[in-house]
Write a structure and sequence with these properties.
Blueprint: H1 5-8, E1 10-14, H2 15-18, E2 23-28, E3 36-43, H3 48-52, E4 57-60, H4 62-68, H5 71-74, E5 83-88, E6 94-99, E7 104-106, H6 108-117
Length: 118
């Protein structure tokens, strides 16, 4: 799959994700910086102290995100305000999303439908 980095913009990503930790939490908010797409990605290992230090984050393009977590491009078009915890089974395999706004499990189709309703 060929990725058009300009079309996607850039993601703010925890360095823990870059070092192989699973994604634990993602949210999307409108960015005042045009090059950023609004997605911020945290790992399961990120605690409050880690998150407070901006040096613990990098800005990545879509090509790199696709390598680290192709699922991010599947949910890319979710609306601003999307707030998701990522769930894993006992073997550490991705098992779905928990919508923090609605306080319930959710699926990609539901996440993307929210945008089409607006």
């Amino acid at each position: 799959m060929e990725i058009n980095n300009t079309e996607y913009g850039s993601f703010i990503v925890s360095k823990n994700v870059m070092h192989g930790k699973a994604i634990g939490y993602t949210y999307r908010q409108e960015s005042e910086i045009p090059e950023l797409n609004g997605w911020t990605i945290y790992s399961v290992a990120d605690d409050n102290q880690f998150v407070k230090d901006h040096k613990n984050f990098v800005i990545l393009n879509a090509d790199t995100i696709n390598t680290v977590s192709p699922m991010m491009l599947e949910i890319f078009d979710a609306p601003y305000g999307t707030d998701l915890c990522w769930k894993y089974d006992e073997k550490g395999q991705f098992a779905g999303f928990y919508d923090m706004n609605q306080r319930k499990e959710t699926f990609i189709d539901d996440i993307l439908k929210k945008k089409s309703k607006k």
